[in-house]
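cache lookup: miss for this entity combination. No prior model stored, computing from scratch. Input as submitted by user K.M.:
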Amino acid sequence: MARPTNTNAFSDSAVVPGNGNNCGQSACHAPEAQKEGAAAGTALGRILRDKKKAILTKWLDAIMVSFPSGNSTHFRIKGDQFTNPTGSTISSGLEAIFEGLLSSPFKAKNEELLDGIVRIMAVQDLAPSQSLSFVFSLKRIIREELGAEQADRQLSQQLTDLESAIDGLTLSAFDIFMKCRERIYEIKANEARRANFRLLQMADRIDSVNGRRTAPKGNKLTIKEER
Amino acid sequence: MRILFSFIAVLALVLIAYAGVKTANLQFLFGVVVPYAAIALFICGFIYRVVKWGSSPVPFCIPTTRGQQKSLPWIAQNKLGNPSNTMEVIGRMFLEVFLFRSLFLNTKTEMTSSNRVVYGSEKFLWLASITFHYTFLIVLLRHTEFFVPTAPFFLDIIKSVDGFFEIGLPRLFLTGAVLLASTAYLFARRLYIPQVRYISLAADYFPLVLIIGIAITGMLMRYVYLTDLVSVKVLALGLLSFKPVIPEGIGPIFYVHLFLVSVLLAYFPLSKLMHMGGVFLSPTLNMANDSRMTRHINPWNYPVHVHTYEEYEDDFREKMIGAGIPVEKEGVVNGK
Amino acid sequence: MASKFSATPEELSKIDHNPPKKGWMDTPVEFKEHTFCWGAKGKNLAALELPNARDWSPADEDWKLPENWQKIFLDGMKERLGKYRSFRLFMDICVRCGACADKCHFFIGGGDPKNMPVLRAELLRSIYRRYFTVSGRMFGRAARARDLTIDVLKELWYYYYQCTECRRCSVFCPYGIDQAEITIIGRELFNLLGLNIEWIAGPVANCYRVGNHVGLEPHTITSSVEFFCDDIEDVTGIRINPTFNRKGAEILFVAPSGDLFADPGTYTAMGYLMLFHELGLDYTWSTYASEGGNFGFFTSNEMGKRLNAKIYAEAKRLGVKWILGGECGHMWRVLHQYMDTWNGPADFMEVPVSPITGTRFENAKSTKMVHIAEFTADLIKHGKLKLDPSRNNHLNVTWHDSCNPSRAMGLLDEPRYVLKSVCNNFYEMPENTIREKTFCCGSGTGLNASENIELRMRGGFPRANAVKHVRDAHGVNMMSCICAIDRATLKALMEYWVPDVEISGLHELVGNALIMKGEKERTLDLRLVPLPGKAAKE
Ligand code: HEM
Ligand code: SF4
Ligand code: SF4
């Protein structure tokens, strides 16, 4: 079903995750999730999967609001993986994380998915709170979507479980964010070190006044980079 | 605002012409004076703009290369993306001007992560632009029948292909409808693609609305308020031979159509519609990528202050000697 | 960092789906930290005889402009409209079709609408309309024309130092409108007011007096090269003794100075040295013309010319027959499209002929300067090099087309041919991200500073994302390129986005694969890292 997804790729209606080129065909993920998912098997899991499209739309909205006004327009557009990497990383990432939450175990894989999004957020000149509030907002969005159904006792227990999973996700997101920021500083330092390394090496071995080499050959500095 | 402004402006133009002819009987003004003025403005303005562009020189050879350069004989050059001589440049320009190649290149078949083929939305820009321009051209050519006593040979061809859906009488010309549709699409995309909407100016909506207006009035004349083509031809030939006459029996709708066309003509040289002429002058497209083969001359190249080797050696002579680098003036210290 | 954020969940859920309701003319510029570079130091501007030399900071309210700055700017604009057809035409004919809008890496990675190429141009067009067109003078704002106020100047400055002059937008524009060309002229105008950035002005001042961007003095250059020779000796057992400023050499070799001091460019320099030694090439380095790159080009046409003049002057002084150029992107933009026009004719030299293969480089017959990828591809084609590509077997290599050689020259298949000859595992990135559609490293045109690191990471994301794709699909662990800025900045980019991918120059891999006469068995690569499977034998 080679639907020309992008007929209206720039229109807002086309940005709905799950409506785009990755998995609008929610069918393509569902069977796989169901076969192992604990939450997937639960009543809550089934309900949420039914509401997936609405939830993901709201969730995408929530992340987009973090960006300065106007900057998110392009990211909402469901472009292709290479022409709109930012937008597609975010929307397909959210969808996969959501799927991950409905299945279990989800932790390891979700961190990887979160990493893709948070890594982008960490260089958008946003405060951490701004960058990460989207994770929290999933709780609110889910409750909104559940409406009256959340009163159901059985559901409510499952909901609590899900929410603590989201809390865990938030913490991971924070860790990733901090790592990204640290990385930026390391990169700056590494870059300066790389740029000056040979000069240091030379300073170590030549007499800068008359330009003659002083140190014997083989006297090498070693460069260490932080990873 | 910008959009509303364009609509109001065109509507106002329609009303002016309609009222002028219907109530004030200004047929001569709208049938003769305005068209002459518009054509004069168009021609003079067009020439002025092109001459103005032409009067700025092209100091550097700056083609944008879209493909492999001509270098070693065994490496296949992309002659149309990266031309190295005039013939190849003509080929490149031909593709640009007649097929809108750059816009087409925008279109790429993509494999998405789920391995399905999708097409970029840009395909539609290319499609709409090219249909718009060609239907516009055909409609223009069709109009030549009013300006020549006997129909030129290409008219029959156009007409027979164009109107091959003979739906009732008069024949429905496809081009008119397609022109309208493609213009409407170009307009619509300015509204619903957020980025394009953000960059659009009144000057972008106005010509589109104007052209929609021209197309609608034209079609109205053809299919609804049938106009006496013989009289129109008399008027047109009169204009052409500088012996203007205003024949009887032409409805106001014709004058509205003519007025909108006149406005388009007059507006043309003032606006971005000049891309028609400009595309031919664009240095990134119309130059051969031969800057290492033939020296390109900059007419205003002027001498500049440089740091000469002598100054450099004076600064560093000792260090150079120390490092075993040959110098021009051995034994000279500090420039003395 | 952006101001404090304190939205409630309720506020968060109120979303504006569209671009800002307000038009771009009503959205004032906000100088975001980590997005712009520091202002140029007065002493550097003065050293270059540039106007309004003083220390200044873009973050300050007061930019210390001359009294009549508007007049200077507008007069400068008028002058350039008369001097550059490109400028006048590009101010006039854009139809705002939006084809270029989503092609700029800064827009793709950061989303700021003013980073759409068409809007970047409109920022200046609005001034053009106001002061140089009838409709703009008459209708003002309605015709999207606006006065040149200090805020408008700042906005222009902010966004014109967020363009790497990569020409990607030009490739997609039906009229070839090239924002790079507009940015070049915009930056010339800023320089009339002393508004350069330090990361450009500093290197330019160095280059002017000392001969190269980093300010390597002659003895530093020779010792730097000597160190490379030490390392080469360790790797191959062969001692190389290159010459400097030697009169009567057949060929002058000019490389970007980045290759002389910054890793991983230094390994590329080692590759050059090994190749030339193996060929027995009669060539010399120059300490005077020790910079092929040209940050002057990011300042003004005149400054570009002033720095570039040294290359022909030195070729003439040394009496060489032709010039060979190393791996650098914007260096080749200048050499290919500008040098001959600025400082030619080079009639004191001969049409370049490879002394090894006898090939006449007809494509360089006027400028008399050959790209080393052309030179090496020709050697390999004629079977003049003995290569052992398996020495690069531990590398899964992809190729980054640098902007300038791709879109201002078309040097695409020569380096690929070389690359495929020296390594066995080569994988292309996706089609829309290579060749003439290549994505910029995000740090070109002097924007490779550290204070604007977030801008660089955002701008480089489209490139990094494509690398990530080939890493995941093919296990790519090395991206090779022919640009000194790339070698420095892609490294940083990879460290952030795709940490396990390294960066190399083309001739580093050539150096690894090159079988030299009389060499010892190689156990190390040029980085002095043991070659897998070979180290044990030592
Ligand atoms: C290389 C050749 C040309 C190309 C690539 C080209 C492309 C375009 C594009 C992309 C548009 C904008 C559509 C939009 O509004 O989004 C346009 C509009 C237009 N073009 Fe062309 N064009 C070319 C030549 C011409 C010529 C020869 C004419 C002669 C009449 C012309 C007349 C117009 C008109 C009347 C419009 C519509 C007004 C508007 O869009 O504002 N064009 N063209
Ligand atoms: S592609 Fe060209 S004509 Fe279209 S908006 Fe961009 S610069 Fe203007
Ligand atoms: S030249 Fe490159 S950086 Fe500048 S606007 Fe165009 S695409 Fe963006």
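stored under new cache key. Residues 29-196 of chain C form one domain.
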